[in-house]
Structures are given as C-alpha cells and as structure tokens.
Amino acid sequence: MEAAPRIVVADDSGLMRRVVAGALRRAGADIVGEAADGDEALALCTRLAPDVMTLDLTMPGLDGIGVLKALRASPALSALPVVVVSAFSPRHGARAVDALAEGAFELVAKPTGPNGVQSFTDELQSKIQLAVASRSRAPVVPAAAAPQRGGRARAGRAPLVVIASSTGGPRALAEFVPALPTPLGAGALIVQHMPPGFTHSLATRLDKAGRLTVREAADGDALSPDVALLAPGGRHLRLDADRRVRLGDGPPVGGLRPRADLTIVDAARTFGERVVLVVLTGMGADGTDGAREVKARGGQVLVEAEETCTVYGMPRAVADAGLADSVLALGELAPAVAELAGVRA
C-alpha cells in the first residue's frame, strides 16, 4: 500500500484552510501542517519536508510569490511541487502567471460560491495527484544527443508553427518562445490550457521576453510571420479557409476549451506539409489527434523529451503513437523549429 501524500496547506483564511484540507483528506492525503502566512509555510516545509504544498498567493507578510522564490532558492526545498490555490480574476492574471514562472506546478481557482465547491474539490484532488506523481517520477539523465525519429525533417516553405502545452506549459513557453526567431515562417499559434482571464497576462509576459510578438488571439486575426497568437482561455481557436482565426464558444472537448487538437487539425488541413507542430509538457493526450492529421498531410511533429517535462503526458502520447519526428529537450526545440523554418534562432 502506497503511503498517503504528506501535504502542507497555506492560506490566511481559516475557512479556506479547512476547505482545502478537508478535500484532500477525503482523497486520502495526510495534512501534516497548516500555515496562515508565508513565513509559517516556509518554516513548516523546512521542518516537515512534505510531498506537496498548496499555497494562496495573497497572504500577510511573505506572500505566495515570495514563498515560491524562497523555495526555489533553497537546495532542500527547490523540488517541492506547489499547487497554488487562490482567488483568481482577470486582474489577478499577472500574479497567476508570475506564480507559474516562479515554479508553481499548477493553479486552482478558489470556489466563488457553493455551486462551485465540488468542481473545485475535483480539480484540486486531480492536480495534487499529478504533483505527487511528478515527485515520484525517476529522474532521466539527458542524452548527449536527443533521440530523434527520422532525423532532421525538411522545412517546407514558410511553415506555420503550432504549439500545444498544458501542465508546466507557462514555464516551458517562457524558455521556448523567447528563443524563437522572427520572422518565423507564416507565424505561430499557441494553445495553452488555462482558465479564462489569464492568457492575456501570459501573452504579455511572453511578448516582453523575446523577439517574436506574442498576443492573445482575437476573432478574425490574420496570421503574420512575426506574431504568435495565443488561444484565449475558455475559447477554442480555429482557422477558417481564409487562414483567419475564429474563436469558438462550443462545448469543451475532452473537458478542454481550448482544445489543441481542433487548432492543429485546422492548421494541417489549411497548410498541409507546411505545418510544424511542437507538443510541450502537459497532462493527458491533447495534441495526439492533431499530430495524426499533421503526419497524414506531410507536416512535421516535434515533442518535448521527458527529462525536461513537468508532466510527460501530452508528448508521451504523441511519441507512443509513433507520430513524433523528433524528441528533443526543451532547450533544443527552438533551434530545431528555426531550422525547419529556414531561419536562424
């Protein structure tokens, strides 16, 4: 029998600590400590060495961002997975993205009313399980040369780059996207699983970090070689026959909206062999159906290698289906995309 995951819960609200702790105990977790502020949270983590911590962003004294920075600076605590549990709204989007950039494993929004408690509980339990699993995964030693299938693929003219990511994606995108060149073929589309209200802040952060212009996609946007369009949280990003963006409010697909598969399939049907698909870290299998369409039409598929993934789910699904042309560590992906696009990174 596996040992129950040991968790520290940090929140300045006593009520919220009880809600979070209760939800996790019902899922079989061992709540080893509860903290009302950031300093207490750090002290508990140092003393108790938990498997995971849940963390509010807004607390007296050292806030959640400060806690994350302190964790990453500590050799003993730098690998501790942190699931941020905080009240979110569009104006809090920048702080949420900052938390992910500082190493938070995932984000869960606090329930806004009694009707949202069950969905909050389900999401929290799921993401805690993923965080625990990320600690137990055996480390992989990067190979001297990343494994590839089929060698370097042909570039094609002015390819469209499509990027799909989920858990751990904002941190991966923060390294990958700024390393991309501009102009970049026909441009780029990014689908990152995030709640509504936060993708604008993610796009702003990515835009400031690199040469490629990054912005949240708007309905009717045209593709541009120097622009990466990010799917808004809560909306599907589609391409029409005129290669313009169409945002959809249709039902989630497999629980996801946006669903990367929809974007990728549209891109493959429109650009054919000129599609370069990059699948980054994330849970689940979103991107696999899209990758199958890309391969059927002669395009290229690159996936992030396990050793640099936060969660080796989406890339594994594509690789296990035999659809990956190249399996590369995160730092090797931008040069590979640049080569396929015929430009220098």
TL;DR of this structure?
This protein is 35% helix and 19% strand. With 345 residues, it is an alpha/beta fold.
Descriptive overview:
With 345 residues, the protein is of the alpha/beta class. The protein folds into two domains: 6-136, Response regulator (Rossmann fold), CATH 3.40.50.2300; 160-341, Rossmann fold, CATH 3.40.50. Helix content is 35%, strand content 19%. A seven-stranded parallel sheet has the order 8-9-7-6-12-13-14, sandwiched between helices. Helix 8 packs parallel to helix 9 (288-296). The model is unreliable at 138-153 (pLDDT under 50).
Alpha-beta content class = alpha/beta
Spell out the CATH superfamily of the largest domain: Methylesterase CheB, C-terminal domain
As residue ranges, the low-confidence spans are 138-153
Order of helices and strands: EHEHEHEHEHEHEHEEEEHEHEHEH
Rg from alpha-carbon coordinates: 20 Å
**Tell me, what is the CATH class of the largest domain?**
Alpha Beta
Biggest sheet strand line-up: 8-9-7-6-12-13-14
State which percent range the strand residues make up.
Answer: 15-25%
The residue fraction in helices comes out at 25-40%
CATH architecture of the largest domain: 3-Layer(aba) Sandwich
The structural domain count equals: 2
Largest sheet: 7 strands, parallel
Overall average pLDDT: 90
Outline: elongated
CATH structural fold name of the largest domain: Rossmann fold
Question: End-to-end span in angstroms?
Answer: 49 Å
Find the count of extended strands (DSSP E, 2+ residues). 14
Helix segment tally: 11
